[in-house]
């Protein structure tokens, strides 16, 4: 394998192995050429589903390939992004955060910090980008009903929103525990006309809502479209979710060129299933001067058994239709994840991240609950922006990253969502009674 | 003749499923054999049984909460093999528990335990580069699932590499759902039998001797799972007597079609 050495941000970056050429039409030595025709990112990804679902996901792939080539599909996608979602989302220079970390960093260190403001989207997070793309596919395929899983309720709200917009009935599967701790989002979904189905099995959180959504789908494949909320699941989901979310990175690229006349040196994003991160990263994967850091939820610490850092603390396995890094025991039983952020509380992640991790192109780092809480407050106080707890994990990487980067470097953090949904959790963690 | 061939040679066979580690598994398995089960499917518990309805999901959870490990499942299998040298034994479960230590490891240990075949719910032919070859290499059958959505185009891929028997999942759905209409089962079995030489067993939603008897008129085997697992839940350590009673009634109905 050929390698090139990353240059730029001076973060002790690893050598970057170049991907083998996987498809005949792929550019040589590209990190952007996967998945291959069988839906794999190296050993990861694939279509590990029950036979009942196989014909359907093959159909979905066929239909997606047609949509990819259809200018009318993308014209409709773009129009909705603009007028319904409110894109482009701004790329915002964060002056006080920049100053703050410059003050803490060694002399000459402390890059310019930009926020990609996905929290300004309709419904308050990046999740809607993917939902718009998938509901357009559902309509193309003639499906009459929509289902989705949700953890924090962000994807549930985004799905209920597009279902209402297109007049399709919608069922959202949600763990019983999450229904209890995310009441405002449950009510939002109901206002939007969705039925919220409580999942009582297993750990009653995100992974179980995905199990129940898959169970429902298997029994209703003929008329139901499953809008998966992150860049995971059986092929072609990781690919199509990535493609819809890539609008984040494409805009960032244009915006930073406009503001700075050059590409950024570092991209930072939180990784739950990995959709906001891959959306930001993917358009830059073949720019070796752009370093990337994915933030996993470290919970109480990766040395404890209460975290959701599947790359740092897990190993490859098979769940929810794909092969990827998973938190599991030696028998392959899935262990429960923990994060203060419901959207990161999942024992796996999308297969492309597993591959980017093993190939060394992206560096993945865990951040604990308390580090995220601290960054959450700092962002509120210094920038007047209440970030989602998920996004606060990305912000919490700044102390370390900024200390190592020169002052003339550019760093972009994906503020994937707004934190209104999290104020109860944060108040409780800070010991404040509302 | 393999154990499968012997079991299916006599005419329609009764295939019984229970979850390993749920209740007194050895006693439960003995009750199934005593009641007349021709083939045993032993479920490997998994934390996330995505293709199962509530009854078998709960059985998985009970088994895991009782501390059941893969090593225990393999031990139950090898002890079964000593007690019942002739009865075909199938391990049924999900990919992650089967490949956690590598497909080769699993195939080797299963073979050592005297297992005849394996059903893996979430490895379709497209992803079967490792498990199927590893099992066949150790002389085990990979038993594939065909479903109402498996069309003529996919069927050859499903059949390729299948042996022992073909499991027709008669409803598009999870275990424990309502049974499919008899007419659709007859059509599907006819289609599968025309395309393959191995026996076709039909399962999902079969609970009563009456249903079993209807299916046995057209298929080579009838699979019953959730109804048996329900008895384990209901009766705990008293389950063997009840399992034996239901299995006898089912076996009588199925064998009457021989
Ligand atoms: C605001 C926000 N950011 C990030 C995530 C994590 O998901 P992903 O990794 O797919 O972006 C979520 C999930 O709910 C979220 O709501």
TrEMBL record, chain B:
Keywords: Amino-acid biosynthesis, Aromatic amino acid biosynthesis, Lyase, Tryptophan biosynthesis. This is Tryptophan synthase alpha chain. HAMAP family: Trp_synth_alpha. Pathway: Amino-acid biosynthesis; L-tryptophan biosynthesis; L-tryptophan from chorismate: step 5/5. It is an enzyme of class 4 (lyase). Tetramer of two alpha and two beta chains. InterPro entries: Aldolase_TIM (IPR013785), RibuloseP-bd_barrel (IPR011060), Trp_synthase_alpha_AS (IPR018204), Trp_synthase_suA (IPR002028). One of its GO terms (molecular function) is tryptophan synthase activity. It comes from the Bacteria.
